[in-house]
Design goal:
By secondary structure, this protein is of the alpha/beta class. The protein has 2 domains: 30 residues; 191 residues, no CATH class. Helix content is 45%, strand content 28%. The strands form 2 sheets. The chain has a 5-stranded mixed sheet with strand order 1-2-3-7-9, sandwiched between helices. Strands 6-5-4-8 form a 4-stranded mixed sheet. The relative contact order is 0.16.
Length: 222
């Protein structure tokens, strides 16, 4: 018994130190939903990093949007100046909806949950990026709205043809088929504008954004 305790104690201390470090660095503990979201985002990010010869990837982009802020999971800028604005969803099970509906339905076992249409959610991100680039006199680019469901067991049912919503495998096929003509110097202007306006490293702005998202989520539950 004593020997077991001697072995377990260091592990308990290590877990305590790690948790303390997370609290100190972030100022808050992530919810389970946020941690699951991070897993989904990492799957998309890791795949896109492999295709560095096709474009430039910027993860976790936080931009000013008038009085508010908008957070974008991934911006993948191909050397052809196509800009993929990517919203990831790490949801499992059946998800049903229509392209222009406000809410979709997520089925988990026998329960149903409303899911705000991620296409509409990402359309706002496209408008923010478009406004930012135009205000900096950037021209000749093409914005693409992309929503990726990253869970292997997710099934998305949208009874309309579209080139927006993908499971992870289909998204990977989409990227792999991209034919590239130019190089990184062809998109340096776009990269500079987005990176120089990205506020994701600003802890105060990020915390305000998180609080805003949590307030909206609470209102939607009522």
């Amino acid at each position: 018994m004593l020997i077991t305790f001697i072995f377990i104690l260091p592990l308990i201390l290590l877990m305590f130190i790690i948790e303390k470090r997370i609290r100190e660095e972030s100022g808050r503990v992530k919810t389970r939903a946020e941690m699951l979201g991070d897993i989904g985002e990492s799957r998309v990010s890791n795949f896109l990093k492999i295709h560095y010869n096709k474009g430039f990837l910027i993860n976790n982009v936080l931009l000013k949007n008038d009085k508010y802020t908008s957070q974008i999971d991934h911006v993948f800028i191909t050397f052809n100046r196509d800009i993929y604005i990517i919203e990831t969803k790490n949801r499992s099970g059946l998800i049903k909806g229509k392209l222009n509906e406000k809410n979709w339905v997520s089925f988990v076992g026998k329960k149903k949950y409303l899911l705000y249409n991620p296409i509409k959610q990402n359309e706002k991100h496209l408008r923010v990026i478009d406004k930012l680039l135009k205000s900096n006199n950037i021209e000749n680019y093409n914005l693409k709205n992309i929503v990726v469901f990253t869970k292997d067991n997710s099934k998305i049912v949208i009874n309309e043809e579209n080139d927006i919503v993908y499971n992870l495998k289909d998204f990977e096929n989409l990227i792999e088929k991209i034919y590239i003509k130019g190089g990184k110097d062809n998109i340096d202007d776009i990269i500079h504008v987005i990176q120089s306006n990205n506020l994701s490293d600003n802890r105060e702005v990020l915390e305000k954004h998180i609080n805003m998202v949590e307030e909206i989520a609470l209102k939607n539950k009522k």
